[in-house]
Design a protein that fits this description.
Layout: E1 6-11, E2 32-33, E3 37-38, H1 40-49, E4 54-58, H2 64-73, E5 84-88, H3 102-107, H4 110-116, E6 120-125, E7 128-130, H5 134-144, E8 148-156, E9 164-168, E10 174-179, E11 193-204, H6 205-216, H7 225-236, E12 239-243, E13 257-259, H8 263-272, E14 300-302, E15 311-317, E16 322-324, E17 327-333, E18 338-339, E19 344-346, E20 349-350, E21 355-356, E22 361-363, E23 365-367, E24 372-373, E25 378-379, H9 383-389, E26 398-400, E27 417-421, E28 427-431, H10 432-437
Parallel strand pairs: 1-4, 1-6, 4-5, 8-12, 14-16, 15-17, 16-18, 17-19, 17-20, 18-21, 19-22, 20-23, 21-24, 22-25, 23-26
Antiparallel strand pairs: 2-3, 6-11, 7-13, 8-11, 9-10, 9-11, 27-28
Length: about 450
């Protein structure tokens, strides 16, 4: 692969409605993940390590948080030698509409592809969790003189209706492509599995530009790669299937790919990181996942003021996190989280700046940024009560949204207070009424700017 002749377009404009309320104030690619990252970091890190240094990120919905993250964590390319990562919002260059579909988003920016002088275009989604060497996929196209390559994987046929389903010949040439069929085709000789698209494509630039221009002129097109572009290219040109998770490329073979587009999918992907042998290898030294680093002290675990022992078992903890006399089990804690004395956190994902007050109990929860859980609060133990206050997923994962108001009285005594440890390790005592009225105002470890992220 010639890096100077390859450009990547990352589709990062999805509203992420199925991931609500985590996407209430941010685009799905900007949702925090794994105690340290944002979802988009995986696609961008793959580009970086694959040698692709010309990247366009197509944004649309609630993009402020995403743009801040790209500025803070990804301003690493050198325009002086032709490298860049550029955010491209809808500019209405071809009409008066926003992006109307995945293919339309690229079509509205064809002029950027023409200016790039690239031979190959890599189309990616910014909201999947996986590691992949795109250079190997581009080389696969070059070796076969393929107009297009589609990254694919095997899934149980019962789940294949959620994907684009491919059928291939003995040379991996795609002979049929159907987007989300009701009766997915199975792999010959394996009736329990189907071959599906991962939404990762490599195009010869000339092929892509012509296909998009033809699609823009179609009055019946939905302007989507899976529904419109690929089925037609399969009929007209050489489209090949590239098998994901094999030994080609420089990534250790873990075969892990997840669409974290639902609350349950997001929660499970975080929990996957806590397995004894995680299915996603984040520890390959020459393929690290890059992100925006928080300037915070190391995580710390210490006894409570009364001498109560802290229990921490199988936990990912971000920088600045402090557990003081609490119990945390099988959980992912992002940066600057506080777990106070007597609090219990089990099977949870706590995002940046969360405080769990004294004696509070959390189980099977996702708690969004800067939420202050009052002392004595209980979430995840009485689902009927939880559903009256919070969104609850099909798998009974409770989501506490950013800015949630617990009111001035919790299940513990009205006169108790919430104690929040500051970054200087001093303790500020607040009434529960103060915390409920403006929790972010009283969180000393987060800047006002960061509260929008």
């Amino acid at each position: 692969m010639d890096p100077n002749k390859t450009i990547a377009l990352v589709l990062a404009g999805g509203a992420g409605s199925r991931l609500h309320p985590l996407t209430k104030d941010r685009a799905k690619p900007a949702v925090p993940f794994g105690g340290k990252y944002r979802i988009i970091d995986f696609a961008l890190s793959n580009c970086l390590h694959s040698g692709i240094r010309k990247i366009l990120v197509l944004t649309q919905y609630k993009s402020h948080s995403l743009q801040m993250h790209l500025r803070d964590g990804w301003s690493i390319f050198n325009p002086g030698i032709g490298e860049y990562i550029t955010v491209v919002p809808p500019q209405q260059r071809t009409g008066t509409s926003w992006y109307q579909g995945t293919a339309d988003a690229v079509a509205q920016n064809l002029y950027l592809l023409d200016r790039s002088d690239a031979d190959f275009v890599v189309i990616l989604s910014g909201d999947h969790i996986y590691r992949m060497d795109y250079a190997a996929m581009v080389n696969f196209c070059v070796a076969r003189n393929a107009a297009t390559a589609v990254a694919c994987m095997r899934v149980p046929s019962r789940d294949a209706s959620s994907f684009g389903v491919l059928q291939i010949d003995s040379e991996n040439r795609v002979i049929d492509f159907q987007e989300k069929p009701e009766a997915p085709a199975v792999i010959p000789g394996d009736e329990k599995h189907s071959l599906v698209s991962m939404g990762i494509y490599v195009f010869q630039r000339t092929t892509l530009c012509k296909a998009l221009k033809d699609d823009q002129n179609s009055p019946i097109s939905s302007h989507d790669f899976g529904k419109d572009i690929l089925p037609k290219l399969v009929q007209d040109r050489q489209v090949y299937a590239y098998s994901f998770g094999e030994s080609s490329g420089r990534v250790t073979v873990d075969g892990y790919w997840r669409d974290v587009g639902t609350i349950d999918g997001y929660f499970k992907a975080n929990m996957d990181l806590l397995r004894f042998s995680p299915p996603l290898d984040l520890y390959q030294s020459n393929w690290p996942i890059r992100t925006s680093e928080t300037q915070a002290p190391p995580a710390r675990v210490l006894p409570g003021r009364s001498g109560k022992t802290t229990e921490v078992n199988n936990v990912i903890a971000g920088a600045g996190t402090v557990v003081t006399g609490g119990s945390v089990w099988n959980s992912v804690l992002s940066g600057n989280v506080r777990v106070e004395e007597g609090a219990t956190v089990k099977h949870c994902v706590l995002l940046d700046g969360v405080t769990v007050g004294e004696g509070a109990k959390l189980r099977n929860c996702i708690v969004d940024k800067n939420v202050v859980i009052p002392a004595g609060e209980s979430i995840g133990y009485a689902h009927n009560d939880d559903r009256k206050r919070f969104p609850v997923s099909e798998s009974r994962v409770v989501v506490v949204p950013k800015g949630h108001d617990f009111g001035c009285v919790s299940k513990s005594d009205h006169n108790e207070t919430v104690r929040i440890a500051s970054a200087s390790s001093d303790t500020k005592t607040l009434t529960r009424r103060d915390v409920a009225r403006d929790p972010e105002k009283h969180e000393p470890t987060q800047s006002q700017t960061d509260s929008f992220r």
